[in-house]
Design goal:
Length: 103
């Protein structure tokens, strides 16, 4: 069963049982959640990427960080999928698209 959970401080993991399918490493910088790394087994998997990022960004929002930014190295491997999802590399969490886009 697929789950997305906080694996350790600063790391969310998308898992199927014990198998790790993706990781998102992040940190807080004042009012911004900074995504330092996205490690996806399948970088083109939009739904997994969307779920993993939203888990991280909404975690930050709950802790008082309304903004987010993906570092260049984090965004690069998933740039095409991010663009297809309509997710900017920086912005306000509340401005994320409500639904995945199909292109």
């Amino acid at each position: 069963m697929l789950s997305i959970r906080l694996q350790e401080p600063g790391v969310y993991a998308a898992c199927d049982g014990e198998e790790v399918l993706g990781l998102c490493r992040f940190e807080a910088r004042e009012a911004v959640t900074v995504v330092r790394a996205l490690e996806m087994r399948a970088p083109e998997d939009r739904e997994m990427l969307d779920g993993l990022l939203r888990a991280v960004l909404f975690h930050g929002l709950r802790l008082g960080r309304p903004s987010y930014r993906l570092e260049e190295g984090a965004a690069a491997p998933c740039r095409e999928a991010l663009r297809a999802l309509g997710i900017a590399e920086s912005g306000e969490v509340e401005s994320l698209p409500r639904n995945c886009r199909e292109d």
